[in-house]
Amino acid sequence: MPSSKAMAAAHPNQTKQAGYAALVAGTLLSISPSALAHVSEQGFVLLLPTQVYTAAGIAVVVATLVALATLPQRAALVLFRAKRWRSMLTGRRFSILISLFATAVLLALIALGWFGPRDPLKNLLPLTIWTLWWIGIVSLQGVFGNVWHWLNPWHGIAFFLSGDNSNVATPTRVSDEHTQAWPALILFVGFYALMLADIAPDDPARLASIVGGYFIVSLIGIKFFGAYRWFQEFDFTALVFRLYGYLAPLSQSSKQTDQSGFGLPGWALLESPKPSLSVSIFALIMLGCGSFDGINETFWWLGIIGVNPLDFQGRSSIVWPTLIGMFSANLLLVGVFAACVYLGLVLAKRQRPHTTVSFINLFCHLSLCLLPIAFAYHVSHFIASFLVNVQYSIAAISDPLNRGSDWLGLGQHYVTTGFLNNHHTVEILWLTQAGIVVFGHVLSILLSHGIAVRLFQHHRAAVSSQIPLAAFMVAYTFLGLWLLASPRGA
Amino acid sequence: MANNIKDIGRRQTLKTLALGAGAVAASNTLPGLMGHTQAASSDPIKVGFQVHRTGIGAAYGRWYDRTTEAVVARINAEGGINGRPVEIVAEDDGTDPKRGAEVVEKFATQHSCDVSFGTLFSHVVYGSSPRAGELKMPYFVVSEGHHVASGALNRYTLQPGITDVKSQVEAMGPFIAENLGKKVTMIYPDFAFGHDHRDYFSAAFEAQGGTILEKIAIPPTETSFTRYFPKIPRDTEVVYHVMVGPAVLTFVKEMGEFFGPSRPEIFGFIDSLEAVDLASPGLEFLEGTYFWEGNPRYAQENNSEFDTAFREAVGVDNNGASVTDAKDISTYGHMFGCWETMYIIKAGMEACNYQGPKDRASLIEAVEAMSDMPHSMEHPQGAKRFNGKTHQTFGHQYISQFEGGRLNVVHTTSIEDTLYEDEVDYTKQSF
Known about the structure:
The structure holds two protein chains of two kinds. Chain A has helices spanning 22-25, 42-45, 50-70, 75-79, 92-115, 124-144, 147-151, 155-162, 182-197, 204-225, 227-234, 236-245, 267-270, 277-295, 299-304, 319-351, 359-367, 371-398, 423-456, 459-485, and strands at 83-84, 250-251, 261-262. Chain A is mostly helical. Chain A has one domain (26-403, 414-485). Chain A is 63% helix and 1% strand. Mean pLDDT of chain A is 86; it is low at 1-39. By secondary structure, chain B is of the alpha/beta class. Chain B contains twelve helices and 17 strands. A seven-stranded mixed β-sheet of chain B has the order 7-6-8-9-10-16-17, covered by helices on one side. Chain B has a five-stranded parallel β-sheet with strand order 2-1-3-4-5, sandwiched between helices. Chain B is globular and about 65 Å long. The model of chain B is unreliable at 1-40 (pLDDT under 50). At the A-B interface, helix 1, helix 2 and helix 15 of A face helix 2, helix 3, strand 2, helix 4 and helix 5 of B.
């Protein structure tokens, strides 16, 4: 045998890791965060003139700010005037039936998680939870509103559990400042921690236990606290959907809530009462967690936590850095936002010294104005994963037990990621993502200005109150576009 | 046979089965297999497939899964293993070593798998192999890592279906020295992967009388490379590059801009561009340059019937792309390893008349006893020579030239070119 030079015995860091090229060629085939690293298209993104695109996006945001400062006071409010109508839908029986159907589907999915295919991309539970629900239905909620009101799998059971009809209807809007949602906030943070830091959030059986556990806890909660309180204060899913429902241009509510209408996305938010502090912070945390979900994949973040982005050793190696980073990012966001609001109030009081607007009042109202950014991040961040995993979902619907059935008549169905491997389609995708991010920021600015005008009833005071937030929005636009353009490695 | 096919591979789609059966029919290399009779036990042979479904290995995982489905469909269409159908139990390891160990444990304790198979990323192999050894679970990896042959693992871990990086890199030395030039500058990422290339190649190349003029290590987080190119000595005859990561396309583009029309010869590893469309902008600079390929992505003029049938079974066209999307490029340089490994498992089980987990040690011994494997439908990438002592296979390596937007094979190494001295003898370890 020909002798080569004596080589040192290999150890984990001295071997070729054949899959490094996945960082170029890879695609994320699951919604679990590491898999959400949109690495496949990153090679092409790095060739795009993203600096020019980013500058253009920021220019749009700045132009919006300048326009609002110079346009008449009511301009922003006029933009959000909605076409309203009285809903004729009572919908209670129908929605209960739909919900019961959703319950049956959820239970079937949980059973699939335990007993169905082990491959998370062939098992409908993880595909439904992370792709169809967390990306698809959440996105639909932000466009059509109230989607979750119909699909909520606890809503129908609640009718029978709570025994109190008045508690049955899932609130379609966030209620006033007296409704606290601290438990929902804690549960939401736990949900994101699972998504970002857990070693295997896609594992069907593991996910089935978590979803099944939450299902049972919800039933107990509904029985114990009543449906209304549960959905308002505890159930983080209902709160996420209610908050994003605010953004829907089209709202078709039930007769009781009477909030049907059509207008610029976010019109319903301007008509909402002041939320409680917990709901306000919940809205901020939605943005904070979503932002960190992008940050934690970047070369920049991996450098901070001392991880070689080309040699990522798996999620288990960074559980604590991820959790600490997530908490820190949220604390930082809430702190910076509060500082901007406080400084804005100081500036506004120079224009209108006797204003009765308090810090907490302004903080709570304005926090909801960040929802469009959070929603834009959500859609933009997950769009590539959705386009891939929805293909797996269709295949799994056609063959839920992975036994060779083909209920949908797909024939030989190969999932493709070719669109992430092509300069032209990657550019379209990137510009779409960037456009969504910029639009989200523009909406936030418009809403924030509108709320300030309404609270201060004084144009110059309102504009002054927005100056620190304007800087915040511009910086956040940069962050969002930078995240899209940055190389990622985890 | 009809009943046999009906029973087998319940996790395989009927569609894939049909493809597999078609591939069998198309091949003339399997006389008598269709006449197989079912053994007494029809319980399936359960193969735990440790697949990178999520995490940074997911792109490879998708094609490893597709290849594995195809080969299992084909094996089942041939009558299975020892008359028993093969059932794949796929578990996602998240491309994570800790999760990998958990998955191996699940194969052994929850799913009652006979063997585990399919791991690619080396850090997952390192995380999983000790657990496989403890559980006495045969662990067939498809990783290319030198970890198996280095002696760092255990008797239950084998890599019989794909060659390792050490043999690949060392086998490039003679070709480059004889055909491209004697003065090489290496450009590589500054961490273990790049260091392996630096060490293995420079030793092999210097043994050929060549000289490494410069070793340019690029920090892993770098996304622009213009400041590194001036470090390339003017008398460089060959640039050897192994850049990886999202900035590879930028690297190639900037290197092209730096050299312009007069450049030295350039040699790289397809790992840099695995699953990347070679028609991508910036890659036109690679015209005339050379690549190592584990298995030629593009069907060649004299393509073997085995490779043609392999492509058909997996659903890959003559350009290495999915038959349903010409832009969906496969990981062609690696995924054949799943196909070949599965056939080796089959051959091993048939050689030892494998009946169940009690025969796992016999299976290991049966595979250890293997040596030469001819180029065949079971080994479509080419002939192999398995070293039972080191648990590592050796085989032909391909060197291709980028011409007109595709890769044409210009040299195939002999198996002898890839051999190196044994570093371990696993057969001396007890079970």
